Amino acid sequence: MDELHGWGPALEEIRQRQASSLGMGGEARLTRQRERGRLNARERLAALFDRGSFTELGQLMGATGEPPVNADGFVAGWGRVDGRPVLAGAEDVTVLGGSIGASSSDKRYRLTQLAAQERVPLVVLLEGAGHRVADAGKPGRRPGDLGGLADLSGVVPLVCLVLGASAGHGALFAPLSDYAVMTATASIFAAGPPLVRSATGEVISKEDLGGPDVAVASGVVHDVVPDDGAAIARGRRYLGHFPAHAGQPPPVRPGRDTGRRRVDVLRLIPPDPRRPYPITPVLAEVVDDGSLLVLQSCFGASIVTALAFLGGRSVAIVANDPSVRAGTIDADAADKAARFLQVAGAFGLPCVFLADNPGVAAGSAAERSGILRHAARLYAVQRRLRVPKLHVTLRKAFGFGSSVMAMNAFDGQTVTLAFPSITLGALPATSDASAIADPEERAAIAREQAAASVNGAASLAYDAVIDPRDLRDALLSGLELSEGGRP
Questions:
Q1: Per the confidence metrics, is the pTM higher than 0.70?
Q2: Is there a contact between 347 and 242 (Cβ–Cβ < 8 Å)?
Q3: Of 29, 263, 264, 332, which one has the fewest beta carbons inside 10 Å?
């Protein structure tokens, strides 16, 4: 008796084709990938998703070729990350170098369609050679995944993991994503060394062309981690700070450290505004224990951008770092903060601003970098935020450096707070640039600037002057006020 009722041949054919697809580029190439200390595409997706939750999309693409191009070099599908649905695709470098064929191009676009339609995050894991030469340039009209990605910006979280050499079309996902992280042995570029040599005559290695030092300095990627596992873990953690899509409330994370408590910051912040200190330990002390996730720390380092949980609520933090050029805001710092705030605002995260800076960068190098343009963009982005904004002036804020950090009056803040003895002004009265010749007048204006906390509170420029040890409680109170208000 036929237990399969005549289905046997069809089932066997599909089973064989599926088995071939699971074999990717063959054992020799998979062994070479392991010897490099890297996971293969399927192992990477298994690590990204909760155990046993992955469902593959387009597994049989490329199956009819001779020989078959398994999954057309791009393994894709959906699963769960910390219990929530997520879409993902991984370039398979063992299949034709992870290059993009016509079928895998369609699969990439299908991912963007599903992400928009079902409103779930999208993660792409890169290690590929860009468009496949044999498939490129064919006439015809078809949708492209780059348009799909652009349409997803601000709609669902987009995360990019660069886990090997990534060139051309695939590499564009990094700058189009909300967050991009790469491994220490990865590289990313518009065109790889062979094409660079052919086009320009320049002979250069992958590392010098687009290794971590280059990619971080250019701002193409946010962070560098040691290996595949660390990159995947960081991507999962990043997603944990965001809702599945815009319009959904930011996640809430219950825990032991979600209540009010005084914070030990007096030892971390010297009262003298001329003395530097790192801001990151202050942030770690204030937010829920162990929840601080600093992003893009090696780019525009005079501003720290971080995600954290505060009272169990996901928040975005923008803070000046006085240990880096006294907290002066340069073009890179402004660019970083503006991009970060755009993402935070799109997904409804309350934004915390901690100001301690002498203003925006000055000098010929700063002007050539476009400091006015970048700082003005940062101001415009923060001004247009429609999420709760909580501002605290820690010690000083001069000139436009106060405006970009959301200190201006009538700027939509839920709360505006100050520490005692802050110093404010267009520029320091004690500076030679103040053009005040009379020593007595200069001293009088300096005293006025140094009394900004009391004078500001007296005129309601600040809602309150707080003891620095009450910083966490004051921010929690502001978050409570905003709970029922804005989308």
A1: yes
A2: yes
A3: 264
CATH of the domain at 393: 3.90.226.10
In a domain, 252, yes or no: no
Give the bridge partners for 417, in sequence order: 392, 464
Q: Which domain holds residue 342?
A: 280-481
451 CB neighbour count, 10 Å cutoff: 15
Mark whether 342 and 445 lie in a shared domain: yes
Q: Cβ neighbours of residue 257 under 8 Å, at least 6 residues apart?
A: 288, 289
- DSSP three-state, residue 338: helix
CA distance 107 to 188: 22
Mean pLDDT by 10 residues, the chain (487 residues): 84 91 93 95 98 95 84 96 98 94 91 97 96 70 86 97 95 97 97 91 94 96 98 98 96 94 96 95 98 97 98 97 97 98 97 96 95 97 96 93 92 94 64 52 53 55 92 97 72
DSSP 117-173: HHT--EEEEEEE-SB-TTTTT-S-----HHHHHHHHTTTS-EEEEEEEEEEHHHHTH
Number of domains in the chain: 2
